[in-house]
Amino acid sequence: MTDNVLEIDNLVVRLGRSDDGDKVIDGISLSVRPGETMCLVGESGSGKSVTSLATMGLLPKGALHATGGQIRLAGENVLAASERRLRQLRASQMAMIFQEPMTALNPVVPVGKQIDEVLRFHTDLGARERRRRILDMMQQVRLPEIERIFASYPHRLSGGQRQRIMIAMALVLEPKLLIADEPTTALDVTTQKQILTLIRDLQQAHGTAVLFITHDMGVVAEIADRVAVMRTGRLVETGPLDDVLRKPAMEYTRKLLSAVPSLVPRPPRENKALPVVLEANELGKVYRERSLFGRNREVVAAQDVTLTLHKGRTLGIVGESGSGKSTVARCIVRLIDPTSGGIRLAGREISDLSRRRLRPHRKRIQIIFQDPYRSLNPRVSIGESIAEGPINYGMPREQALEKARQLLELVHLPADAISRYPHQFSGGQRQRIAIARALALDPDVLVADEAVSALDVSVQAQVLELLDEIQTRLGIALLFITHDLRVAAQICDEVVVMEKGRVVEQGPAGDVLTHPKQAYTRQLLEAAPGRDWDFANFRPVGEAPPLPTNCPAAPGL
């Protein structure tokens, strides 16, 4: 018998159905004790999520299968369990929180009924008792207005509320093991902190073992008891949190830690008298909703937003989800029409132009979205996708394709990428393609809307370095929308902080992020995960570096 809730012993997972397919997981072993949080970290493609799916018995049939090792849940081998037994174990003994709750929740069923389905399948409780337990669980995960939310559909809830529903669904039967697969990646820092605190509190209350999968080393520093580092399907390093952060044994672990952007802003660039390329003056956006009974409801998404962007500079807009960051970006690009205020692009007012009159100006401002896979057409080759814009503006096709080749070289992708399709690239490569496509029209302004938030730290560092290189070479102005203050500190010259549609603070990045004047900005900074760690130097912030081992301590020390 063992005290471990989960034991993975020499697990091997292969591609396809045969036992000689390529190994996706190659002999990993790890364990999680009751009440312990084990963080499984690594880059995209390292095998973290495959490990979690194998544990839950959810490997896609025909695509992946386990060919060796054991996964023991409270002593029972999950890999040897029947499909019927696996259904019994899920939720009652082990449960999983997925990265994107909107895709995990049924959009046409109220969230309360979705939690109720777990209880109906696994218990003999009556409807009244089930409802009482669900409401109690919703209260434990700190949802407001639980009766209203019980009857709400997923699209009526915020991202943080949907994630809380997923946590309630996972913990309603008090399973022994909770697997959390990147549950906070797309959340802003304050919501992320709330979710992490919530998981920790519920874990302590119920004694749950947690296997937490993430690429965010800041999150690891906040919640982990032990850390396991994966690379290309193998376990590189494992150990207590303090050991891994202070004394990483492997070069790969050191590279991961060094890639974490610092909260200390980069040194300011020379403040030359550069021309203004973009201005927003008292910009506002109000959404009007009409109910079934004819009553109008107004939602103010942005109000009196004023900002200025100079050539070759980066202006960051930061804030929580719902603060109006993306609304402002979409108004500026004219993907949506502002309700009030003005937008001047290279000295020309564009806020009131019709779609037809706006067309000649669109090439001067381009946008990079968060998810390149959704913004690239899966049935169109990369070369055709990049060349589409120039062709639409009159460039001959062969010339446009040659330009596409040059842009792929600029973003450090191979020449043969031009004939391939989006699904043949990694997430980081697809984002490079999206950047190349945005540059195809030689814009004055590039708008990056959460363009690196879904990337792991090493790929994120590469994309940020690429944007900085492109900006230096081409002199493009960059409007950077992000909820990650670490990223803002490393790429922005000036920062605008938004709350509930309004600008609450703005100024040079070094001033705003180091000496914030507003309580809301201080709240954002205090919520940043791992803010107390200097990851690149493997020590807490402010701690002196260790003395060299061959250097005797000074007298009196």
UniProtKB/TrEMBL annotation:
Subcellular location per the Swiss-Prot or TrEMBL entry: Cell inner membrane
GO molecular function annotation: ATP binding; ATP hydrolysis activity
This protein's UniProt keywords: ATP-binding, Cell membrane, Membrane, Nucleotide-binding, Transport
Entry's Gene Ontology BP terms: peptide transport; transmembrane transport
One Pfam family of this chain: ABC_tran
Gene3D superfamilies linked to this entry: P-loop containing nucleotide triphosphate hydrolases (3.40.50.300)
Stored InterPro entries: AAA+_ATPase, ABC_Ni/Peptide_Import, ABC_transporter-like_ATP-bd, ABC_transporter-like_CS, Oligopep_ABC_C, P-loop_NTPase
GO cellular component terms listed in the entry, alphabetical order: plasma membrane
Regions crossing the membrane: none
Domain (ABC transporter) ranges: 6-257, 287-525
Membrane-topology descriptor: Peripheral membrane protein
Family: Belongs to the ABC transporter superfamily.
UniProt cross-references to PANTHER family, sorted A to Z: DIPEPTIDE TRANSPORT ATP-BINDING PROTEIN DPPD, OLIGOPEPTIDE TRANSPORT ATP-BINDING PROTEIN APPD
Biological function: Involved in beta-(1-->2)glucan export. Transmembrane domains (TMD) form a pore in the inner membrane and the ATP-binding domain (NBD) is responsible for energy generation.
Name listed for the protein in its UniProt record: Peptide/nickel transport system ATP-binding protein
Organism: Rhodopseudomonas pseudopalustris
